[in-house]
Amino acid sequence: MSRGLFNWTAEEVVRFLRDHNFTPHHSRGSHMYYVGHAAGSFRMVCVPFHGSRAIKPRTLKGIISQSGISKDVWLD
Fold this sequence. Notes:
Layout: E1 8-9, H1 10-19, E2 23-28, E3 31-38, E4 41-48, E5 54-55, H2 57-67, H3 71-75
Antiparallel strand pairs: 1-5, 2-3, 3-4
């Protein structure tokens, strides 16, 4: 059973972004910013780190949108 947009932690999101050639750029408080190229353009993605808590689905949708990587790739 697929977890869909639920139960993603910040560490899992970062692992996914690094696997798709995003690199850390800077941090500001508890938010890390990653940069990379996707969909033919430069992208910057903000990932909130709040312990080991799961990222809320609406926040994950924003991260997916910022990354430019299709939702199907994220959820496979």
